[in-house]
Amino acid sequence: MVIVETTIAEAARLPAPPPPPGRTHRRRDSTHLSVRTHRTLAELRLLRPEWDALYESSNSRNPYAAPVWTETWLRHFAAEPEIEVLSVSRDDRLVGVAPCYVRRIGRLARAVQFAGTGRHDALTELPGVLSEPEESRSVLRAVVQHWCDRYAEWDWLELPIGGHQGWFEPEWLTGEPAGRSVIRHKTTRPSVILPLPDNPADPDALRGLLKRNVKESVRRGRNRLGRRADSWTITAHSSPEQIGRAWPILARLHAARAGIAGPRRHPDTLGVPGRPEFLAEVLPLMAAHGRAEILTLDVDGEPVAAQAVLLAPRASYLAFSGVDPRWWDVSPVTLLHLAAGERAVERGHAELNLSVGPDVAKLRWSELVVQNPDFVLCGPRRRSRAAYTGYALAAELAGIRREAARHRSGSGSAKAAGRGADAQAGEAGES
Question: What SS3 state is found at 217?
Fold first, then answer.
C-alpha cells in the first residue's frame, strides 16, 4: 500500500475544488470567535439547549449531527476523561460544535477523533462538525487552530468534513504544525441523494421523478404481495414507545437479512456487542425530538421487513433495515424506501439520503452522489509521523482482509443470487 502524503507547501499549490452550485456563501474571518472545551457529560448537558437550537437553525441534512445522537454515542463509547467537545461562538452566539474525543492507541499514540469514528464507526455514517452554513469555514478554521495550539497533546487529528463544508485548507494551520505537519486526504464518504419535489401537499409527485426500473420494482412487489397475502400495510412507528416496541423487530429482521445468500452478503452490523444497546437507547431519544422513526411492512399482521429512518431538519436518511428472507421476492425494502420518500416530501424535506456507499441498487433511485471527505492532520513531531504510518498500514491491511472475507462468504451462492436478481433489483443499501 502507498500512503500519499501532501506537505503544506504542496497542498497550497493544489487548485481548490470548484464550489457546488448554489452553495451558501461562507464566512472566512475568525474575528470575534472563541472556542471553549467541554470535558464532561455534565458540561455537555449544560450546552444542550444552545446545541439543539444550533442544530435546528442550521437546516442540517445530517441526522448524525443531532446533539442527542452525538451525546449518547460519547456516553456509550468514549470514556469521560477522553471527551474534548469544542463549542465555537461568535460574539457569545454559538455557531459551531466539534464533538471530539482523544483516543489512546497502543502505549504512546494519541489521536483526536470525532464522535462516531474510531470505535463502532459503522453506526455513524456521517460524523463531523456542526455549524451554521455561512460559518462552516470559520468554524473549521477555529477547530483546527485550537488543536494546532495543543499539538504536543496528540499525534494525529482525523477531521471529517461535510459535503457542503468544502475542503481542508492548509492556511488553517498555525504555529509549529504550519510548517512541519502532513495533511492526508484519508477517504471519502459518498452518499447517494434523491432530491425531493418541493410540493409537500402532493407526496405522489415523488413517483413522477422515479426511474422506470424502480417503478417496475414497486409495481411487481405490490402485485406479488396481493397474490400471496390477504392484506398488507406499511406502519410508521414514530413515538418513543412505538420505537421501543419496533426496535427488537428491526434487529431480528436485520440479522435475518444478513443470512440471505448472494455474491456480496449484507453484514450483520448490529451483531457486535455494544451496538444494539446503543441503538435501543438512542432511537427512542431521537424519536422524542422528532428525529427518528421505524417503518415496517406488515403482511397479515406480521412485520416482514423494517427500515429505520433518521430525520434531520432538511433531510430524511435511510439507516438500518431488515427483511424476512421468505418475503425477499416482494421487494419489501423498495416499498419501505418509497414510503420513507413520500413521508419526507410531506415533511417538506429537500432530499432522501439513501446512505453512504453507492451501489447499483441505490443508483437505480438516483445518480446524485455527494462526497464527504475525511482528512488526517499528522502532527509535526517525528514520533507522530512514525506512529501514524504504522497505524495507517495496519488499518489498511485489516480493511482489505474484511472485504475479502465478505466476498468469500457469498461467493458460493452466485446462482441463488441470480435467481433472486429481479427481487433484489430495487433494494437499496446494505445497512
Answer: helix
CA distances, 86 to each of 5, 130, 139, 143, 282 (Å) = 27, 11, 10, 7, 22
Nearest to 94 by CA among 126, 63, 67: 67
**Helix (H), strand (E), coil (C) string for the chain:** CCCCCEEHHHHHHCCCCCCCCCCCCCCCCCCCEEEEEECCHHHHHHHHHHHHHHHHHCCCCCHHHCHHHHHHHHHHHCCHHHEEEEEEEECCEEEEEEEEEEEEECCCEEEEEECCCCCCCCCCCCCCCEECHHHHHHHHHHHHHHHHCCHHHCCEEEEECCCCCCCCCHHHCCCHHHHHCEEEEEEEEEEEEEECCCCCCCHHHHHHHCCHHHHHHHHHHHHHHHHHCCCEEEEEECCHHHHHHHHHHHHHHHHHHHCCCCCCCCCCCCCCCCHHHHHHHHHHHHHHCCCEEEEEEEECCEEEEEEEEEECCCEEEEEEEEECHHHHHHCHHHHHHHHHHHHHHHHCCCEEEEEECCCHHHHCCCCEEEEEEEEEEECCCHHHHHHHHHHHHHHHHHHHHHHHHHHHHHHHHHHHHHHCHHHHCCCCCCC
Task: Determine the Cα–Cα distance for residues 329 and 341; give it in Å rounded to an integer.
Answer: 21
Give the pLDDT confidence of 348-394 residue by residue, as tens digits: 999 999 999 999 999 999 999 999 999 999 999 999 999 999 999 99
What pTM did the predictor assign?
0.87
Determine the pLDDT at residue 31.
64
Q: What are the cell numbers at 53?
A: 437550537
- Residue 425: band (very low, low, confident or very high) from pLDDT cuts 50, 70, 90: very low
Which residue, among 133, 31, 149, 134, has the nearest Cα to 86 in the 3D structure? 149
3-state SS class at 133: helix
pLDDT in tens, 159-197: 999 999 999 999 999 999 998 999 999 999 999 999 999
Measured between alpha carbons, how far is 147 from 380 in angstroms, rounded to an integer?
12
Helices (H), ranges, 229-370:
240-258, 275-288, 332-347, 360-363
> How far is the C-alpha of 284 from the C-alpha of 406, rounded, in Å?
31
Coil, strand or helix: which one is 89? Answer: strand
DSSP run (H or E) holding 146: helix 136-148
pLDDT band at 20 (very low <50, low <70, confident <90, very high): very low
